[in-house]
Amino acid sequence: MHRFANPGRFVRLAERILPWTGGLAVLALGIGLYLSLFVSPADYQQGESVRIMYVHVPAAWMALFVYTVIAAASASALIWRHPLADLVARASAPVGAGFTFLALATGSLWGKPMWGTWWVWDARLTSVLVLFFLYLGHMALSNAFDDQSRGNRAAAILALVGFINVPIIKFSVDWWSTLHQPASVVRLDGPTIHPSMLWPLLIMALGFKLYYLSLMMLRVKGEILATRLRARSMAALDAT
Amino acid sequence: MEQVQTFLAMGGYGFFVWPAFALTAVILIGMLVTTLRHLRAVQSDLARLQVPEQTQAREVQQ
Amino acid sequence: MSAFTDVVARDLRLALRQRGDAVMVVLFFVLTAMLFPFAIGPEPNLLARLAAGVIWVTALLAVLLSLERLFLADFEDGSLELLVLAPTPLSLTVLAKAVAHWLTTGLPLIAAAPLIALLYNMDEVAMPVLMLAMLLGTPSLSLTGAIGAALTLGARRGGVLVPLLVLPLYIPVLIFGVAAIDAALAGLSARPYLLFLGAIFLVSLVVAPLAAAAALRQAVE
Questions:
Q1: Is residue A10 part of a domain?
Q2: Which of A80, A85, A168, C208 could be cross-linked to A73 through a Cys-Cys bond (beta carbons 3.0 to 4.6 Å apart)?
Q3: With contact defined as beta carbons under 8 Å apart, do C130 and C113 qualify?
Q4: What is the three-class DSSP state of A43?
């Protein structure tokens, strides 16, 4: 982990593997999209609307995954003071918010034909909405201070405090009777979903993950360059 | 043609399925575009700061 | 132990000197609760159904308003740095401040809640549960709120930021607080919901002082 602590080394490494992760992401998303829309079967009960699952579920998985990354990065930043951890958290928060919004919106589009309503205040939907606001709070807090590092550290504490919401989201469909369907993929007994639907789903999920990885590296690179820019601007001001 | 129409109709759910996929595309591409634009802006700002430094270095050499 | 009581006593003395602050919290609570009948109509059955929710939401908002001041005065006059450097564990100091905050905010709200329940025609059978639920819930609000107040010290627009950070964390208290009262109104046992409120209180009691202390240390560095 500490090999990557050097920002310059990170940027060079990122530039080397970015074409691969980006290319694979496009490939996975392309194949996943094709399978989702053309190859996978319509559902016995839900008809063609089940295809929304292939974007809704990966988006929801990413919403949780990115928050977990941010929580891990926050712990790393606070406990070991890893210099890149703050940047990873900062770079990831807007992306996580985007995935959460996507999960909520596609869920709504799926819910209307299936449940007859755009929204319902059940445990799963409510806790994901709370997750969305946790992301927004994180973004607001990290930008609320003139001293950037103070903002990063405050946001790190917030991320850790809010992490309790992640297991609540995951298990909400088990603990409370909800309108949202129970887990059918990530279960102790294994997935209950048919392979002809499972494979497109997993390929789309892989595509989303690779997309996030690529985007995150680009954004961290941007943060590193922005820090360099700030330092150079200040040095230039001093020189004049 | 009829096949395309059936496909677009998505068994009557087209009104929900296509916006879902469209929104996904918009958000995924949108986040990428925003990131790349910010990256390019920072890179060009850094480049502009480099040039005066190079002129200063040349002056010092002279 | 004496350091703990010292901080509580000091904060209480300051609060007493500025009696207006505690009064304002209660006034806001009552006034906001009074707005709804004007907006949704005074029909008694409708109000009775909404009573639990309105009481909890307006209590939440009233507590939110008072949070920004929790550490601000100490931060601005430099006494916060002294508290951070003092031999007493910072989390204990935070706990003391949260206790003082609850005594000047949560407790007055609990006292005022029956008035709102009356105005909303809430069935008296739920009154004991209302008081008990607020007794169990409002300390969590002070504790969790302290985290938000500590995180936003010195932030631009800190006042607007605190609700954004703290409200998502308040939602479980809100859900179980209302559920307890609704259970009592329906003649069912409120015990499971009260136990949840108690559990949330215990978790906040442990986590909040630690998190807020960490945030305070960042603020004075």
A1: no
A2: A85
A3: yes
A4: strand
Full domain range(s) for residue B34: 18-61
Is A11 contained in some domain?
A: no
**What range does the domain containing A130 cover?**
18-239
Complete DSSP assignment for A135-162:
HHHHHHHHTS-SSHHHHHHHHHHHHHHH
φ, ψ of residue C107 to 5 degrees: the values are -60, -50
Between chain A and chain B, are at least 3 CB pairs below 8 A? yes
pLDDT grade for A73, boundaries at 50, 70 and 90: very high
What is the tally of structural domains in chain C? 1
CA distance C102 to C169: 17
pTM here is 0.87
Q: What confidence tens digit (pLDDT) does each residue in A129-185 have?
A: 999 999 999 999 999 998 888 999 999 999 999 998 888 888 877 777 777 877 777
What pLDDT sits at residue C76? 84
Distance in angstroms between the alpha carbons of the first and the last residue of chain B: 75
Asked if A98 lies within 8 A of B35 by C-beta distance, the reply is: no
Task: Tell me which of B27-31, B44-48, C209-213 is least confident.
Answer: B44-48
Nearest CA in chain B to A39: B7
- For residue B41, is it within any domain? yes
Q: ipTM of the predicted structure?
A: 0.88
Tally of domains within chain B:
1
Domain CATH for A145 = 1.20.120
pLDDT tens digits, C137-188: 999 999 999 999 999 998 888 788 999 999 999 999 999 999 999 999 999 9
Distance from CA of B49 to the nearest CA of A (A): 7
Instruction: Identify whether A83 is part of a domain.
Output: yes
Total count of domains within chain A: 1
Can you give the pLDDT at residue A162? 92
Asked if residue B26 is part of any domain, the answer here is: yes
A142/chain C closest Cα distance in angstroms: 10
CB contact under 8 A, A137 and C168: yes
Nearest CA in chain A to B16: A109
Does residue A233 fall inside a structural domain? yes
**Dihedral angle of Cα A22, A24, A29, A35, to the nearest 10 degrees:** 170
Q: Which domain holds residue C34?
A: 2-220
